[in-house]
Specification:
- By secondary structure, this protein is an alpha/beta fold.
- It has a domain of 93 residues: Rossmann fold (3-Layer(aba) Sandwich).
- Helices cover 44% and strands 15% of the residues.
- It has a 5-stranded parallel β-sheet.
- Helix 3 links the parallel strand 3 and strand 4.
């Protein structure tokens, strides 16, 4: 069986680089797939569903930035969580927005977790380790 991959929706190139480096710093060899906006994320997920195989492999989780061009993270989150097949994929909001109303709204839309991006690289490495460990090793997710 293939190991799950991680899908990351992040429009900032520097943040994508830091995330990739944080996974590497932890020694993780996960396949990371990056998309740069909400439209690309929905298209990516649609492509997975339209493959003509019975063994569809969904991401182990999605790291979703809220503030992206073309279609923001809130719209994408709502679409994913309203879809009968995609809604089982854990979606971790990973954003700089630290607003109580925004956090509440994301949980109402179906977010599995809301994480404010750390300001230091060392803290990012720790947060990535915790998120990955929880969603790929601890949590039980339907197949």
């Amino acid at each position: 069986m293939q190991k799950p991959f991680i899908l990351i929706a992040e429009d900032d190139a520097d943040d994508r680089f830091l995330l990739q480096t944080a996974f590497e710093e932890n020694g993780f060899t996960d396949t990371l797939e990056f998309v740069e906006n909400g439209i690309e994320l929905i298209e990516y997920l649609s492509g997975i569903m339209h493959k003509k195989t019975l063994d569809i492999l969904y991401p182990g989780f999605i790291l979703l930035d809220l503030n992206m061009p073309k279609k923001d993270g809130r719209e994408v989150l709502k679409e994913i969580k309203q879809h009968p097949e995609l809604k089982k994929i854990p979606v971790i909001i990973f954003t700089t927005t630290k607003n109580e109303n925004e956090i509440r709204r994301c949980y109402e839309l179906g977010a599995n977790t809301y994480v404010v991006k750390p300001v230091s690289f060392d803290a990012l490495v720790r947060v990535i380790q915790e998120i990955r460990s929880y969603w790929l090793n601890t949590a039980s997710i339907p197949a």
